[in-house]
Amino acid sequence: MSQPQTQPRPPGLIVQPGWLAAHLDDPSLRLFDLRPEESYREGHIPGAIHLDLEELRHQVDGVEGMLLPADQFARRLGELGVDHTTWVVAYDGNWGLLAARLVWSLARYGHTGAAILNGGADRWQEEGHPWTQEVARPRPTTFVPVPRDEHLAERAWLRRQLGRADLVVVDTRTPGEYAQGHLPGAVNWDWMNGVPVGSWDAVRDDDGLRTELAVRGITPDREVVTYCQSGVRAAHTYLLLRHLGYPRVRNYDGSWAEWSHYGEPREP
Asked: Which UniProt keywords apply (predicted)?
């Protein structure tokens, strides 16, 4: 069963505070605050529902942080009021890091009408938009998952694909983590390289960014797989590349935690 083509969509994967402020009263909006619960209770954007990202993750064969299977994910999203008639905006206090993971998770299960709020809670408050302590309550609905494999890299698939000339695997961890061991042939591009210095913006301006990526072989004509330790930092780079128009980008959900757990080939 596929999601109807009338699913509402935000104007892109990243929306600006002013745009969201103009759409806060849209009944099809589902707004999620992924900051710690105490921060949410101190104040949040009106209508925002608090969500702990760990509610959408679980352990698989000793590997922590894996995305919930379709049925469990659908049950939780339905409880949170998300279905094919709604669109989602998520925010946090860390350059959209957790929000990007939620957007990727939704895309994996067929809901592509989701975006992150640029600048998160900090930019929103800085611009003087509405702020409240009133706790929002979701109206449960039915979320129908439609798994889309083009957003996901799994271990068995990745093992078979390594070495393809049109594939680039991007390790989004720190250089120190990368040096201690990484997937064969992976290039290192720390996810923080995509965040502007001294700004709350979720991603850098395009100027120079595409060139920096191209130098590492991360180009739009290749399929890109991002990974980190557990698929969160990698989701931010996934979103950044999608935002730049890269057509084939996957996030390796299990990432290094899973790859190393099973003793897969590694470098050095």
From this structure: Repeat, Transferase
